[in-house]
Amino acid sequence: MWKIRSILLFFFLSLTLCFGKTQNQKIVAFAQDTMANDFRKAQVYEVRDALLPYAYIKFVYSDAEGRTSLLIKQIEKFIDQKVDLLIIGTNDADAVVPVVSKAYKNGIPVIILDRGINGDDYTTFINSDNMKIGRLGAQYIAKELQGKGRVLLFEGLPKADVTKLRSQGFLEELKKYKQIKVIKRTGNYLRRDAIIEMEKLIKEGIKVDAIFSESDSMLSGVRSALKHYNIDPSSIIMVGCDYTSEAQKAIIEGSQSGSVLFPLAGKQAAQTAIAILNKQSVSKRIVIPVQLITSDLAREVPPVF
Length: 305
What we know:
It is a single chain. The protein has ten helices and twelve strands. The radius of gyration is 20 Å and the shape is elongated. The strands form two sheets. The chain has a six-stranded parallel sheet, with helices on both faces. It has a six-stranded mixed sheet with strand order 7-6-8-9-10-12, sandwiched between helices. It has two domains: 150 residues, Response regulator (Rossmann fold, 3-Layer(aba) Sandwich), CATH 3.40.50.2300; 132 residues, Rossmann fold (3-Layer(aba) Sandwich), CATH 3.40.50.2300. By secondary structure, the chain is α/β, with parallel strands linked by helices. The two termini are 29 Å apart.
């Protein structure tokens, strides 16, 4: 089924790019890791909506369905079609480096969005301080636990730089607390994967006092699993990341303790794309601030989507 969807998507993009481009029109293409992740999908749509007022820009995107090999093929396709600018959301900091470098060296401006790569051949990198995200979650949890307890760290995609940095910031902060024990599980930033892993823990009789999830999507899966086994989510300190509308609701209701607001940065990517297409210089690195949202701020601060 995925092969059929991929072929149809490539066919559609080919028609769009080959026959849909008018004189003086610019093509902005977003090669996204997956649209199955709520955050990644909202990110694409925020770029799309931010570019709508610019009639001379045609926006297209691809969905790699979480598969690095397909993401590379889709970027190759955009290079062959000579798009005017590429936005890339990757799932692997190393594997995409050669194809991203190829695009850049072929004269296509490249915006690396959110998740970084281990290379320098790109125009600009827009992201937030992921080490700080981990530290914020750890500081809050350590304070609430009064320096002792068992904490579950729910990690995202193992090969994504954001996962490594969030985990590093979190673990480094908690090293200060000798009576806090950390266990780790991987949820790949997906709700369903978090449900599976949380159910395994529950069946094994492993109890935790707090959870730091590197995305709110995974924390939503955690809550679903807890409720299925009649465990009150409010009995566990839980901090997520992204600050989605679902997380905001859970924080207000008391079934989630907090979330680190991690902006989609789609608007910033669109604004940067416009500047680049207009031959304006942009910084090699653009950092978007992050903020821990708890019950005292949840009613005032709007969610990222």
